[in-house]
Amino acid sequence: MANQPSFPEFQNASVLITGGGTGIGAALTEGFAAQGARVAFIDIAADASEELVERLAPRVTHRPTFLHADLRDVSALRKAISDASTANGPITVLVNNAALDDRHEIETVDEAYWENNLAINLRPQFFTIQAVAEGMKQAGGGAIVNFTSTSFMLNIGDMPAYTTAKAGIVGLTKGMAGKLGPHNIRVNAIAPGWVMTERQKKLWVTEEGLASMIERQCIKQEIQPEDMVGPCLFLASNAARMVTAQVLIADGGML
């Protein structure tokens, strides 16, 4: 991972990341841990998450805490958040990263698929915020970073439930920023472009598709998971003290 600026406020801070075991989430887990934070992350992918912890443990001040949970189960999610607080202290930085961007045709979507998709991609973001809000208030403030996507801004049509959820995250971000701002809790969102995670490369990246995307970007390079770390650190840090209710687009300048 490229060197990141140092943010002293993250040393020993209690940070919670959803979906922190793979892809963008793994880069975020590493990025905050490298700042000296006490990082807990929730993921359903046990093997990859445990491997990540073992890889990072010798290189960071605090061994990351992996919490296995299915975010669709709100009770399990709440327990994982409680366990994170017990392990690391009251959470003052929350990163809502977890998502599942499966493609789906309009004709094949039924009620169960729709509800399940939003139960992964939108509903947990609210309930994680709900679960950490009181602790942040008691701590005197905090920062929440929600991951949305540029997909709904680009009229991408082959994942309508996903793009609906990602648009909803923007509304949730703004609403929660208004509600929690008086308690010195900032709520922002990051909208990545097409990030070259292993999942994307395995399932959807083609040479032609990637070349077309890069041609539309101002910066003519592939976007890597590590490229989301700097924006997230900034929005969670004191450098963004008066930044809230915003969406930071990190797409190499395509939009």
Automatic annotation (TrEMBL):
Signal peptide: none annotated. It holds the Pfam family adh_short_C2. Transmembrane segments: none annotated. GO terms for molecular function: oxidoreductase activity. The keyword Nucleotide-binding does not apply. Keywords: Oxidoreductase. Residues 13-194 form the Ketoreductase domain. InterPro entries: KR_dom, NAD(P)-bd_dom_sf, Sc_DH/Rdtase_CS, SDR_fam. CDD domains: SDR_c. Belongs to the short-chain dehydrogenases/reductases (SDR) family. This is SDR family oxidoreductase. It comes from Oricola thermophila.
